[in-house]
Design a protein that fits this description.
With about 450 residues, the protein is mainly α. It is about 70% helix and about 5% strand. It has a two-stranded antiparallel sheet with strand order 1-2. The termini are far apart.
Length: about 450
């Protein structure tokens, strides 16, 4: 493997690892804050207990996210110094602001964790809101940088160097809103489904647990709303890509020939040699309609671009198919659950998660994360062979330092150790957190427990 490939693999694996924890850092504080808000409104102890236990998860994953984020900042400078030299003056502003958002989150997380009974309820709840907002703000600012790499603006390219730099223009490139919204929604959907799956497992084992039922309702509420909004967000993103990144769209769809009234390919295996996508289900007019809201619109094919600038069509297409397929699956499951809730409400009955629904939710535990990671791969692979779209090749951005195999294996080993440690720590915390307390027992169980105490 060449040094370029070692650098790409190392950066890619680091980001994939970081995204796992960063998504939790974005979504879990929102669920934690909703639980506390419900406690303040209802006075029910189960909501307070839920907020406290979720906050411990936020603290652990915040620390892991900080570690992996620090590694990324080092890797940017060590592996991609030419990229940083070129892009630093342009994207340094959102990176700096992301640092402020990180510090704000850390300060208020400290107040939240140690403020129970030490500060007023209003200040404590306010801390939770700030944590949820600042974590989302961090995601917003980091995604702005990626949006600029896909649509670089705010400078004039003269002799291969950026001139007339405008950091503010670079901070808000075309399509930033579509990409940011899509990324944040994917975080809420992925984490919502993952948390719902965990609590569905424990509710299966402890059907009378108020704690797990309450947690499941909040998680599926957050993840479900995000999953239903995701297809709408995806439509806006697809139209932006069609207009501003036609090569990426062509690779995503396995679309080789420029065509009016282009069909949509579902599935299939793109073949660059024959410039076809065999085994695909073709929906007539589908791609033109989705990309331009016009069934007869012309869609550029890969034939319009030099062959050496094509992304890996097979990987981009398959990653996109997985992302979209799982996205629609999540939306379908949410509609199924919401329909069951509405039916019981219409019959004026109490909604109960039966074993069929719990089994479906458990099976869906990882799909949000798979969709999140494959969506990120579509964005990154679809931009290749450029690090900065149409401006800097990835091969031109990599460090000239040789022997990148050594840092690759060292850092991957450290990440493996960190991943195992965090998994063990979270497993223990989740198992301990699944044990019912006096506040979350059913009334009959509480009565029994109290009787035992009196005896």
């Amino acid at each position: 493997m060449t040094d370029l490939m070692y650098a790409r693999w190392l950066m890619g694996l680091t980001l994939a690892f970081h995204i796992t924890f960063a998504a939790i850092g974005v979504a879990l504080p929102l669920m934690m804050t909703i639980a506390e808000w419900r406690w303040l409104r209802s006075g029910k102890a189960v909501y307070r207990e839920l907020a406290q236990k979720w906050s411990k998860g936020v603290a652990i994953l915040f620390a892991v996210g900080a570690v992996t984020g620090t590694v990324i900042s080092f890797e940017l400078g060590l592996l991609w110094p030419r990229f940083m030299d070129f892009a630093g003056p342009l994207i340094g502003f959102p990176f700096s602001l992301e640092g402020f958002a990180f510090f704000i989150e850390a300060i208020f997380l400290g107040i939240y964790l140690y403020g129970w009974e030490r500060v007023s309820r209003q200040l404590h709840f306010f801390s939770g809101i700030i944590i949820a907002l600042s974590s989302a703000l961090s995601g917003f600012l980091v995604t702005l940088t990626n949006a600029w790499m896909n649509n670089p603006v705010g400078f004039a390219l003269i002799d291969g160097k950026p001139h007339n730099i405008s950091p503010i223009v670079a901070m808000f490139p075309p399509g930033f809103a579509e990409e940011v919204i899509h990324v944040l929604l994917s975080c809420y959907a992925a984490v919502g489904f993952a948390v719902a799956g965990i609590h569905a497992f424990y509710l299966w084992r402890q059907p009378s647990s108020t704690f797990h039922r309450t947690a499941l309702l909040i998680a599926i509420g957050v993840g479900g709303i995000a999953a239903l909004l995701q297809p709408i967000s995806g439509d806006f993103s697809a139209r932006h890509v069609a207009t501003n990144q036609p090569r990426k769209l062509a690779a995503i769809e396995g679309h080789y020939l420029t065509t009016n009234a282009a069909p949509l390919h579902i599935g299939g295996i793109p073949d660059d040699d024959t410039m076809t996508t065999p085994y695909a289900l073709k929906i007539p007019y589908g791609l033109s309609l989705l990309a331009f809201h016009d069934p007869h619109a012309k869609v550029l094919g890969l034939e319009e671009f030099p062959r050496h600038t094509w992304p890996n069509t097979l990987l981009v297409h398959l990653a996109f198919q997985i992302m979209v397929g799982l996205g629609f699956l999540m939306a379908f499951v949410v509609l199924l659950i919401y329909a069951a809730m509405l039916r019981t409400r219409w019959r004026k009955q109490e909604f109960v998660f039966n074993h069929t629904l719990l089994a479906i939710i458990m099976l869906c535990t990882p799909i949000g994360y798979i969709a999140l990671e494959t969506g990120w791969l579509v964005t990154e692979w679809g931009r290749q062979p450029y690090t900065i779209m149409n401006t800097m090749l990835t091969s031109a951005a990599v460090t000239p330092m040789p022997n990148l195999a050594t840092p690759f294996w060292v850092i991957i080993s450290l990440f493996a150790l960190l991943g195992v440690s965090v998994t063990i720590l979270l497993s223990r915390m989740i198992h301990k957190g699944s044990q019912p307390t006096m506040a979350t027992m059913t009334s009959s169980a509480i009565t029994s427990e109290q009787s035992n105490v009196h005896c």
